[in-house]
Design goal:
Elements (H helix, E strand, L loop, with lengths): L18 E4 L15 H6 L1 H7 L3 E4 L3 E2 L11 E5 L6 H13 L3 E6 L9 H6 L13 E2 L19 E4 L4 E4 L14 H16 L4 E4 L18 H4 L5 H14 L3 E5 L8 H5 L8 E3 L17 H15 L6 E2 L9 H4 L7 H13 L4 E5 L20 H12 L4 H11 L36 H6 L4 H14 L1 H5 L1 E5 L6 E8 L2 E8 L5 E4 L4 E9 L9 E4 L4 E8 L1
Parallel strand pairs: 1-2, 1-13, 2-5, 5-9, 9-10, 10-11, 12-13
Antiparallel strand pairs: 3-4, 6-8, 7-8, 14-15, 15-16, 16-20, 17-19, 18-20
Protein name: Alpha amylase, catalytic domain protein
GO biological process, one term: oligosaccharide catabolic process
Keywords: Glycosidase, Hydrolase
Length: 552
């Protein structure tokens, strides 16, 4: 019998928690087919436990044609056979619970697969009971209804001959959007939420949740966001959904790119918010796909501080640098060549000790880098392949396109997790579904476990600190603005006790003088052997210090 985790008795458990995101396809292959699976995850629960994290978020493994790697769900209550069975899923939940680790699933309810039974019915005729589960418009002058575009390129409308209509899809044409104006859609989704809650799921990450409401005028727009992101009226839809989660005592984190901090109160206010937390993307330029440039530290400070101060006393932040859609942090923010471990640990300290719930994406704790694929055939992500084809048609050279993909492709985060230095990294004894990162012989769990100063062991220390010190849980965040493009310095403070977090996020030395109010300084953690001996510091490139202090 599985250990019972009572979320009702501890409704705010997620605040004193660290999450670990698993991308099941790339975690561990247990059945020798080159694809990660649920039994592979079960095998590695001791490793996840060793990190000190207390909940996992799993990217989708529901039944799916896998056009968009599982974010196109064809049955929310069935498991994709490549990952295992429903019994495997229940065993996995049970074993995580036995280890005091809660389980959060990824719920994709902005859209379904075009192979979901709802859509297969909906496209048959305008009188079909499921027709109104999706968004349909008649042709205008023999063409698409308006100028709305898909986030994966091209028109957001695809023609359906049987009904002489176009259906709307914000993502791929195989991912038709659900019509949340129809109350029956909410009723159907509520049943799915209840069904999984009964089977022990502790929460959900809500994919693309800021897109549920579409602009009901269906007119051309100048700014595409006006058609489909945080559209006025979304509040009623989210409030309805929120009752389903609260009724089941589920933790929720919404993917809500484009929701400004000024409007986030409605989303995450402690008592009345729709969700416990949201993922915002101001610090990772989420929508600037395939643009390549160095991150500006001053902009990073501003973006993250806006959310820290904006939600203080109102709601709770979700802290992250990586996920399955983003490049590797050490390649995007850091220096992944000459100072990989140093920059990975500096970045870790910078974001991890802010106020909120930190998330680690699989491989981030090793300082995994972007892949270095040299041919388009090595890519698996449909958006990357689409981008390559479109840019080629515009006359761009394959080399230039591949350079951009190496920086920003979603496949950067999806290469198999390296457990050891063997040819397939201990991920599988079969050819993996996507190539291993070429540097996995040096960056892997076995190697980093043996090195006391590794990125992996640094993350373990951060997790322990975050979960055991009340100041790092509840203390107020205060930026110390250095007005430069190198340093990110802030404090977390309760009463007169606090922590000073000093990070140099650059390839050059930086000077910082610890302000006089901070006294009785004690170094708690650093990523360098050089210890501070005076208040006037010269920080080596990518140097990070955590100091405890008493205030005068």
């Amino acid at each position: 019998m599985s250990k019972l985790i009572n979320n009702q008795a501890n409704p705010n458990w997620w605040q004193n928690a660290v999450g670990y995101q698993i991308y099941p396809k790339s975690f561990l292959d247990s059945n020798h087919d080159g694809i990660g699976d649920l039994q592979g995850i079960i095998q590695k629960i001791p490793y996840i436990k060793s990190l000190g994290v207390n909940f996992v978020w799993l990217s989708p493994f529901f039944a799916s044609p896998n056009v968009d790697n599982g974010y196109d769900v064809s049955d929310y209550q069935a498991i994709d056979p490549q990952y295992g069975s429903l019994n495997d899923t229940l065993e996995m939940i049970s074993k995580f619970h036995d280890n005091d680790i809660r389980v959060v699933f990824d719920l994709v309810i902005n859209h379904t697969s075009d192979q979901h039974k709802w859509f297969e019915e909906a496209k048959k005729s305008v009188t079909n009971p499921y027709h109104d589960f999706y968004i349909w418009r008649k042709p205008v002058a023999g063409h698409v209804p308006n100028n709305w575009v898909s986030l994966f390129g091209g028109s957001a409308w695809t023609y359906n001959q049987a009904t002489d209509e176009y259906y709307y899809h914000l993502f791929a044409k195989q991912q038709p959007d659900l019509n949340w104006e129809n109350p029956k859609v909410h009723q159907a989704v509520a049943k799915i939420i209840d069904w999984w809650a009964k089977r022990g799921v502790d929460g959900f990450r809500l994919d693309a949740i800021s897109h549920l409401k579409k602009n009901q005028s269906f007119k051309d727009v100048i700014d595409q966001e006006d058609a489909m992101n945080n559209v006025p009226g979304i509040d009623q839809l989210l409030a309805g959904l929120s009752t389903d989660f609260k009724r089941n005592h589920l933790m929720t984190v919404g993917e809500a790119g484009g929701v400004p901090v000024t409007g986030a109160k409605r989303w995450v206010a402690a008592k009345t918010g729709y969700f416990n937390m949201i993922f915002q993307f101001d610090h990772v330029s989420f929508w600037e796909k395939f643009t390549v440039g160095k991150v500006d530290v001053a902009q990073l400070r501003q973006a993250l501080s806006n959310w820290q101060t904006g939600l203080e006393g109102i709601g709770w932040n979700a802290l992250f640098l990586e996920n399955h859609d983003l490049p590797r942090a050490v390649s995007y923010f850091g220096n992944d060549t000459t100072m990989r471990a140093q920059s990975a640990t500096a970045l870790a300290m910078m974001y991890f000790l802010m106020k909120g719930t930190p998330f680690i994406y699989q491989g981030q704790e090793l300082g995994m880098t972007n892949e270095n694929f040299t041919h388009i055939d090595q890519y698996r992500d449909l958006d990357s392949k689409r981008f390559y084809k479109e840019e080629l048609a515009k006359g761009a050279s394959p080399e230039d396109i591949l350079f951009k993909l190496r920086s920003k492709s979603r496949d950067n985060a999806r290469t198999p997790f390296p457990w050891d230095a063997s040819p397939t990294g201990g991920f599988s004894d079969h050819t993996p579904w996507i190539d291993m990162n070429a540097n996995h012989d040096a960056i892997n769990v076995a190697t980093e476990t043996q090195e006391p100063e590794s990125v992996l062991n640094f993350y373990r220390k951060l997790v322990h600190l975050r979960l055991t010190d009340p100041v790092l849980l509840n203390g107020q965040y205060q930026l110390i603005d250095t007005h430069d493009h190198q340093l990110y310095v802030y404090t977390r403070e309760t009463g007169k006790t606090g922590y000073l977090i000093i990070t140099n996020l650059s390839d050059n030395p930086a000077a910082f003088t610890i302000p006089s109010p901070y006294q009785h300084l004690k170094l708690v953690l650093s990523n360098t052997a050089a210890k501070p001996t005076a208040r006037a510091l010269t920080l080596a490139p990518w140097c990070a210090y955590l100091c405890k202090y008493e205030r005068n």
